[in-house]
């Protein structure tokens, strides 16, 4: 924990959307009377029927219920598109393709026409208000059109990251009960094409029922075609009108479902609302990124993750901003791509993940220095704690020591940023997410679930009261919502993260306290990787833990026990790696596999992960109490044969 403090320059403060006194005054007001505060700020959206009730929320374990603006009606798409038609020539989306020679600008007027047509296509295919639509797409403008088109007709989208395997896709199609999958022929990334349509074909073989597809022609590559089931988007778009009336939805109607990993079981469908979510995404976007009308804002995330939902599409478009959408990867054609794109489009605000910064840092500073980054004025970070080395490199080489850095802590569940400096108001400390956003009441709890009163402390991070962007439920399983987030620490939203609070009240996230790991900023349940491994016919048992990894933040370390008589050899390790990639996707590919003829278990048969974590971290001097193990010699064996 470093004590360096970086205050914004006087010039930045002078033009900022909030300076220190404004932040403090607004924060005080927001927690003193949340209903009054959000009731006032809710007016920044266009409501078809204005709300009269603002906040009806309780974290009481027996009765968890979260509703904001519950009697109001609005349309999310109209708020992100139609509302800005007064200056329809403004660029809404700058799309930068994987191929550096290809980019295009889409004005708000063009966005309106495309989204309206798209919505009519959905209608024509029988999609109605409340129906779920799966989006499995590259980072192309059609991904934003599809999201907004669903919102326009009140359908609920569920985006599946295009890196997920056919099996993972099938799980989500089934889980959401979707009748339509929107996809593309292929997804170009880093100069290679992934066969998305072929993946959909495989997934739908497994899913029963009558699921249709709508296919974007992105590369023109060969695809198999089922005329009964498959439809080309470009053909359908020509047949429909470019006018589609936005429907009124209730503020509490779901806008989207996004599957995310937890510590147990299959990924859960996080449900976000229409009114509260949009308001929270828009407001955090404006204040945390200090957005002005002439900014060119770029968030490098993928729309398959929550960051892409809130900070590529919904927040920026609700604010009428210009948002960059990038199809490629940071290292193609070379490690200067991010900076080339910044220079090419005059990016002023840049938001990325520490894992990308570390990867580019390793390639050398020459790649940054080749490009003109003088337009940049603000930088952001998300996904995991940013280590001070990466922070300083980012600050010096990308930000030219003139751009504040906002380290934004939040989660799929929170809908938007909960802890982050407002860049003109709060001085940064490298590695700290600093202070809460308006309306957010972080608390640090001890292991008994008591709030720690002392300013300086360490414990688990929980939130004491609701904010409008909070998830509403787990799709189809409200009990799981309650038990995951409200049971262990009664009366609070439990984040799953540990944290420290320093003498200035700054929060420092120390990482997950559950069995969720963070690999290259992607969230993964170790249980998911374990169940993929044990699905292999030669595997009898598997235990998966995270370990520190220079670039990825955390790597995936797997201990695997084989069926009796199976030979433990290297060829099988390769086979298992490929197996997991097929079951989940390349992001879940094991970094290390260690053969484990035995796993450390308690006498009641519970695997002691604490010990496995220590061995993976190579901290075998501090294994702690091993006396409850059924067979302590197992540990000696694992240490002696530690892999990697
Ligand atoms: C971690 C991504 C430290 C954290 C928006 C959280 C962070 C999980 C930060 C959520 C940050 C995210 N500093 N840790 N600035 N941002 N995390 O759902 O462990 O993909 O619980 O949402 O990422 O990951 P998710």
TrEMBL record:
Domain AMP-dependent synthetase/ligase: 87-465
Assigned GO CC terms: cytosol
GO biological process: acetyl-CoA biosynthetic process from acetate
Record has Nucleus as a keyword: no
Residues that hold ATP according to the record: 383-385, 407-412, 497, 512, 523
Cofactor(s) needed for function: Mg(2+)
Claim: Transmembrane is one of the keywords in the record: no
Reactions performed catalytically: acetate + ATP + CoA = acetyl-CoA + AMP + diphosphate
UniProt PTM comment: Acetylated. Deacetylation by the SIR2-homolog deacetylase activates the enzyme.
InterPro entries xref list: Ac_CoA_lig (IPR011904), ACAS_N (IPR032387), AMP-bd_C (IPR025110), AMP-bd_C_sf (IPR045851), AMP-binding_CS (IPR020845), AMP-dep_synth/lig_dom (IPR000873), ANL_N_sf (IPR042099)
Keywords for this protein: Acetylation, ATP-binding, Ligase, Magnesium, Metal-binding, Nucleotide-binding
Pfam families: ACAS_N, AMP-binding, AMP-binding_C
Positions annotated to bind Mg(2+): 534, 536, 539
One MF annotation (Gene Ontology) recorded for this entry: AMP binding
Chain sites annotated for binding CoA: 189-192, 307, 520, 581
Enzyme Commission code(s) on record: 6.2.1.1
Signal sequence region: none
Top-level taxon in the UniProt lineage: Bacteria
Family, as annotated: Belongs to the ATP-dependent AMP-binding enzyme family.
Role, per record: Catalyzes the conversion of acetate into acetyl-CoA (AcCoA), an essential intermediate at the junction of anabolic and catabolic pathways. AcsA undergoes a two-step reaction. In the first half reaction, AcsA combines acetate with ATP to form acetyl-adenylate (AcAMP) intermediate. In the second half reaction, it can then transfer the acetyl group from AcAMP to the sulfhydryl group of CoA, forming the product AcCoA.
PANTHER family per UniProt: ACETYL-COENZYME A SYNTHETASE, ACETYL-COENZYME A SYNTHETASE 1
Record protein name field: Acetyl-coenzyme A synthetase
Taxonomic source organism: Rubrimonas cliftonensis
């Amino acid at each position: 924990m470093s004590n360096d403090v970086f205050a914004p320059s006087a010039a930045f403060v002078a033009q900022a959307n909030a300076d220190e006194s404004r932040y403090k005054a607004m924060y005080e007001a927001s927690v003193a009377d949340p209903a009054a505060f959000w009731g006032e700020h809710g007016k920044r959206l266009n409501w078809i029927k204005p709300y009269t009730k603002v906040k009806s929320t309780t974290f009481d374990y027996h009765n968890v219920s979260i509703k904001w603006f519950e009697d109001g009606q609005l349309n999310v798409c109209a708020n992100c598109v139609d509302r800005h038609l007064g200056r329809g020539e403004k660029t809404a989306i700058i799309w930068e393709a994987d191929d550096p020679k290809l980019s295009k600008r889409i004005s708000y007027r063009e966005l309106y026409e495309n989204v309206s047509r798209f919505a009519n296509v959905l209608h024509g295919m029988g999609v109605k208000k409340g129906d779920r639509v799966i989006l499995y797409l590259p980072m192309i403008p059609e991904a934003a059109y599809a999201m907004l088109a669903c919102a326009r007709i009140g359908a609920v989208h569920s985006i599946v990251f295009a890196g997920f395997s056919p099996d993972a896709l099938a799980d989500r199609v089934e889980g959401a009960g979707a009748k339509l999958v929107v996809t593309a022929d292929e997804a170009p990334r880093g100069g290679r094409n992934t066969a998305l349509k072929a993946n959909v074909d495989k997934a739908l073989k497994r899913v029963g029922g009558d699921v249709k597809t709508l296919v974007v022609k992105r590369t023109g590559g060969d695809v198999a075609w089922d005329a009964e089931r498959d439809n080309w988007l470009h053909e359908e778009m020509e047949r429909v009108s470019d006018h589609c009336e936005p429907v009124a939805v209730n503020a509490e109607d779901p806008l989207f479902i996004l599957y995310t990993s937890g510590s147990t079981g299959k990924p859960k469908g996080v449900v976000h609302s229409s009114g509260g979510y949009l308001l929270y995404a828009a407001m955090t976007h404006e204040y945390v990124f200090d957005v002005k009308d002439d900014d060119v804002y770029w968030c490098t995330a993928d729309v398959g993750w929550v960051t892409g939902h809130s900070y590529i599409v919904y927040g920026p478009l609700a604010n009428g901003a210009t948002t960059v959408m990038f199809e490629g990867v940071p290292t193609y054609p070379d490690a200067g791509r991010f900076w080339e794109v910044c220079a090419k489009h005059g990016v002023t605000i840049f938001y990325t993940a520490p894992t990308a910064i570390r990867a580019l840092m390793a390639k050398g500073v020459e790649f940054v220095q080749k490009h003109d980054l003088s337009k940049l004025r603000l930088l952001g970070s998300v996904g995991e704690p940013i280590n001070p080395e990466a922070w300083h490199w980012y600050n010096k080489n990308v930000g030219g020591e003139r751009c504040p850095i906002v380290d934004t802590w939040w989660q799929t569940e929170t809908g938007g940023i909960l802890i982050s400096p407002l860049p003109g108001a709060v001085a940064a400390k490298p590695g700290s997410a600093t202070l809460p956003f308006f309306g957010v009441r972080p608390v640090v709890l001890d292991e008994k679930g008591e709030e720690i009163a002392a300013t300086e402390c360490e414990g688990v991070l929980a939130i004491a009261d609701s904010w409008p962007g909070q998830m509403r439920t787990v799709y189809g399983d409200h009990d799981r919502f309650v038990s995951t987030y409200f049971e262990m620490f009664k009366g609070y939203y439990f984040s799953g993260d540990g944290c420290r609070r320093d003498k200035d009240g700054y929060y420092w996230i120390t990482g997950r306290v559950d069995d969720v790991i963070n690999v290259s900023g992607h969230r993964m349940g170790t249980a998911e990787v374990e169940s993929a491994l044990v699905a292999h016919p030669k595997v009898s048992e598997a235990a998966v833990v995270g370990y520190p990894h220079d670039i990825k933040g955390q790597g995936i370390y797997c201990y695997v026990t084989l069926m009796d008589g199976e030979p433990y050899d290297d060829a099988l390790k390769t086979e298992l790696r490929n197996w997991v990639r097929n079951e989940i996707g390349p992001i879940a590919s094991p970094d290390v596999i260690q053969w484990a003829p035995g796993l450390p278990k308690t006498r009641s048969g519970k695997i002691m992960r604490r010990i496995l974590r220590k061995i993976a971290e190579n901290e075998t001097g501090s294994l702690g109490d091993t006396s409850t193990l059924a067979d302590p010699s197992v540990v000696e064996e694992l240490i002696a044969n530690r892999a990697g």
